[in-house]
Amino acid sequence: TPGQTVDLPVSALDLLPTALAMADRPIPAFLEGQSLLPALRGEAPFPARSLAWRFVYGPSVAKSPWAIRDGNWKLVRGSVASSEVQLFDLSRDPSEADDLSSAHTDIRDRLQKAHDTWVASMPAPYTRVSSDKVLDFVKAKQAGRAKRPERSK
Predict the structure, then answer these.
(1) Residue 82 phi, psi dihedral angles, 5° rounding
(2) Contacts of 119 by beta carbon, 8 Å cutoff, 6+ apart
(3) pLDDT in tens, 130-152
(4) What is the mean pLDDT of the chain?
(5) Domains of the chain (ranges plus CATH)?
(6) Distance between CA atoms of 54 and 121, rounded to whole angstroms?
(7) What's the rounded Cα separation, in Å, for the pair 103 and 15?
(8) What is the Cα–Cα distance from 53 to 126, expressed in whole angstroms?
(9) Is the pTM of this model over 0.85?
């Protein structure tokens, strides 16, 4: 419906599946997003789901900050230096100022478990590609003879 506001999170991951659905093309199973087209057309309710994300940088994937959102609840580990999590009710606290993790341990634990399950379903942490191999790939691509660089371990 034009001008409709939907109070559920969506992700950039939904853009490709939505575009594929609009083009009447199959959506590969490996894509994490989902088509929003049925909801945008008013044919189905907007999909409710949890969204999880992780900010991977530096040498330790395990210590990376992460968050998971389910409905109005958001669980966050926002620091590389700490394993502490914070829980926020975004319907009452959109600025994420009031940590409710001690008051709602059941929700905290459920979201922590959902996050851990999501992480376990992900492929092994990224491997680095040496900058020399990337540079060689770019040069070969420009010359029209590109092959993907081998990943270093």
Answers:
(1) -135, 145
(2) 54
(3) 556 556 666 666 666 655 545 54
(4) 80
(5) 1-48 (no CATH), 49-122 (3.30.1120.10), 127-153 (no CATH)
(6) 13
(7) 36
(8) 15
(9) no
